[in-house]
Amino acid sequence: MVAVLALISAVATGVLAGRASVKANKVTAQSNERVAEQAAAAERARVESEAFGRAKEIYDHAITELREELERIRTQYERTQEQVDMISQKLLAERTSSQEVRDQLYRAQRELNEMSSRIAYMERVITNLRQQLLAAGLEPAEHIIHGGSSP
Asked: How far is Cα 111 from Cα 123, in angstroms, rounded to an integer?
């Protein structure tokens, strides 16, 4: 009986030791799994950090390039605005000058028309006076000055 009890005790100890070993292995496996998960999480964090760093560099470079391009465009805009202002001033001066020339031309044409009307009127008056002198039997003085023939 002592041997049976010793055998049962050995079996019970073996079973308990086996369960303890399984439990210890399970705890070790869980611990190893947690360590592996933590390592994977740390690796993901490192990769994400590097990716974020590269993305930040790309964004910073893009912002710098865009700012430089913006400055070039602003400078070109200012130069173009100055050119537009100069052209506008020239156009205004040309319009003013052109208007002045048109006004002078209109005045000269009016004067020519007035003179043309006066010339036509004077020619009619002269012709009438000449006809009256001739009808009265007198020779107009212009004929005497110019050689005496009537037109």
From this structure: 18
The contacts of residue 134 (CB under 8 Å, 6+ apart) are 140, 150
Q: What is the pLDDT of residues 47-91, one digit of tens each?
A: 999 999 999 999 999 999 999 999 999 999 999 999 999 999 999
DSSP-assigned states of every residue in the chain:
-HHHHHHHHHHHHHHHHHHHHHHHHHHHHHHHHHHHHHHHHHHHHHHHHHHHHHHHHHHHHHHHHHHHHHHHHHHHHHHHHHHHHHHHHHHHHHHHHHHHHHHHHHHHHHHHHHHHHHHHHHHHHHHHHHHHHHHTT---HHHHHHTS---
The four Cα atoms 20, 26, 28, 31 give a dihedral, to 10 degrees, of: -140
Give the amino acid at 115. M
Report residue 88 as tokens: 């506008």
92-139: pLDDT as tens digits: 988 888 889 989 999 999 999 999 999 999 999 999 999 999 999 888
Percent of the chain's residues with pLDDT above 90: 60
Instruction: Give the C-alpha separation, 126 to 148, whole Å.
Output: 16
